[in-house]
Amino acid sequence: MTGLLMRQERSAHESGSSPALASMSRVLVIEAHPDVRDALRVLLQRQHTAPLEVVGILDTLDSLPDIIARLRPDLLLLDWELAASQKATLATIRARFPGVHILALSVKPEMRQTALRAGADAFVSKGEPADGLLQALVALT
Predict the structure, then answer these.
(1) Please, what are the domains in the chain?
(2) pTM for this prediction
(3) Strand residues in the chain grouped as ranges (E)
(4) Edge-to-edge strand order for the sheet containing 101-106?
């Protein structure tokens, strides 16, 4: 499928994993820039602040509602520049998946209020230190 850049992992209950793994928050990263995608993947895989499982990484919003239905993430780490141009997609996600938290990321800190008004649960500027992103993720888990 176009845009899905990381292997898809079965959920803990499908794979018969231990109950400890079942409590992990499933994160779907949607980021347009390859370097930022790679940095987010590494950061999330190496952090130990919260039990997070990266279930996929996308570079586009194409078919996002279908991908969310298939991967069942608890949290979207969303490049706001992608989402801002497709507000209908964000509204669809909110309507179909009310339990999915959305953390918007942007190089433009001034987009915070716009993202929050549009339905994001949290906002982090890409210019902030990684600790700020991890704190925001922990707050949503």
Answers:
(1) 12-140 (3.40.50.2300)
(2) 0.81
(3) 25-30, 52-58, 75-79, 101-106, 122-125
(4) 52-58, 25-30, 75-79, 101-106, 122-125
